[in-house]
Design a protein that fits this description.
- The protein has 2 domains: about 150 residues, Lyase, Ornithine Decarboxylase, Chain A, domain 1 (Beta Barrel), CATH 2.40.37; about 240 residues, TIM Barrel, CATH 3.20.20.
- The chain is built from 12 helices and 17 strands.
- The protein is elongated, with a radius of gyration of 22 Å.
- Helix 8 links the parallel strand 6 and strand 7.
- Helix 5 packs parallel to helix 6.
- With about 400 residues, it is α/β, with parallel strands linked by helices.
- It binds pyridoxal-5'-phosphate.
């Protein structure tokens, strides 16, 4: 063990960051698979009996997929593009579910052809799309529990009202479609687990009622994602967050398989964004530093995901001056952070952003022809820093 451990190099250490930028250029997203493993294991331990299906959406990268699978995990796909990615990687479809509540028939066919069996529906029209596939597909019905407390409330756009679930299950039964269970997603970056617990209890009751009325197998409960991570604002640690959930899970019948669809928690802390100063100007008493990554790039999560990443220069000095970090595009909204106290920087100096694995690169654009950051995955094999791979797709 100690021999393998000695090969592990923390890729977020300044010397290593500089080395990777020399090798792969800037902007860079350093994706540390060792941190993916740590996050996966932490959530597994905190949730107990729950199988984790990593949701690809926040960081659809081969290295994350392979790391999660090597840990014994599962995957949550939502689009034909994600199906194609895992298919190229030779993933066993039995480890995948498809959870987009609204799909074109071709999306369903693509997933079925790959070998996925479990899908999600939340309304009668969507359930009817599965009538012709009833021999090959089974459904989780997505239930909506509004969550104004979450940073991103996902139950506004998707999910059926709890009082309509059994009616939907009855429709599926009439059409000969197997209802495997229920699912929910209370929202991303939840402040605490109260909403998860409420939804879990309500679903447990609905599933029991559905089983009594023979409306489906109803032996699977999918508790979604939403598990929070630290950004500039710290959150409850995951043990504490999951504690109330664990007690609620223990009350479920043993034959119910519980799964979750974590995205952010698995990959958020596992990537470091690295940008370079392209140039600087002094404006109204502030130093403005123009970076090669910004709001249209990896920092797009500040707009779409409402996240604030902790940013800091890689070099340090005693003297600090009022500073602004701006992105590279010609748009005036492209400003990452203002009112920072930073050392005086020069062209070529590096700025790192922490917790940049989720909803960053995934939602980046190439506006103004500034290319997206190169993703470099490191520590692909446990305890081995020897392998480094730029984004392979
Ligand atoms: C986005 C999404 C997830 C992942 O949510 P996180 O809050 O990042 O854990 C899981 N399931 C579904 C259906 C999603 O849309």
């Amino acid at each position: 063990m100690s021999v393998r451990r000695s090969r592990f190099v923390d890729p977020f250490q300044p010397a290593e960051v500089r080395r990777l930028v020399r090798q792969f250029g800037s902007p860079l997203l350093i994706l540390d698979c060792e941190r993916v493993r740590v996050q996966y294991r932490k959530l597994r331990a905190a949730l107990g009996r729950v199988d984790l299906h990593y949701a690809l959406k926040p960081m659809p990268h081969a290295a994350v997929v392979q790391t999660v699978l090597a840990e014994g995990g599962f995957l949550d796909l939502a689009t034909t593009g994600e199906v194609q990615l895992v298919r190229r990687l030779g993933v066993d479809p039995a480890r995948c579910i498809h959870t987009h509540p609204i799909k074109r028939p071709q999306d369903i066919r693509n997933a079925l052809e790959f070998g996925v069996r479990t899908f999600v529906a939340d309304n009668p029209d969507e359930v009817r799309k599965f009538e012709q596939f009833s021999d090959r597909a089974e459904l989780l019905l997505r239930v909506s529990f509004r969550s104004p407390g979450a940073v991103c409330d996902l139950s506004r756009k998707f999910g059926c009202d709890p009082e309509d679930v059994l009616e939907l299950a009855r429709l599926a039964a009439e059409l000969g479609i197997t209802v495997r269970g229920l699912s929910f997603h209370v929202g991303s970056q939840a402040g605490d687990s109260a909403k998860h617990v409420e939804a879990l209890d309500a679903c447990a009751q609905l599933m029991a009622a559905g089983r009594r009325r023979k409306l489906g197998v109803l032996d699977t409960l999918d508790i979604g994602g939403g598990f929070p991570i630290d950004y500039t604002q710290p959150v409850q640690d995951i043990e504490r967050f999951c504690e109330p959930l664990r007690s609620a899970l223990e009350a479920l019948p043993k034959r119910v398989r519980v799964i979750a669809e974590p995205g952010r928690f698995i990959v958020g802390p596992a990537a470091l964004g690295v940008a370079s100063v392209m140039g600087r100007a002094r404006r109204e008493g502030h130093w403005w530093y123009y970076l090669d990554d910004g709001l249209y790039g990896s920092y797009s999560g500040q707009l779409f995901d409402h996240a604030r990443y902790p940013v800091e220069p890689l070099k340090d000095s005693e003297e600090r001056l009022p500073s602004v970090l701006a992105g590279p595009t010609c748009d005036s909204i492209d400003v990452i952070a203002e009112n920072l106290m930073l050392p005086k920087l020069e062209a070529g100096d590096l700025i790192v952003g922490r917790a940049m694995g989720a909803y960053t690169w995934a939602s980046a654009t190439e506006f103004n022809f500034f290319p997206k950051a190169t993703v470099v995955a490191v520590n692909l094999t446990p305890g081995d820093s020897g392998m480094v791979m730029p984004f392979p797709l």
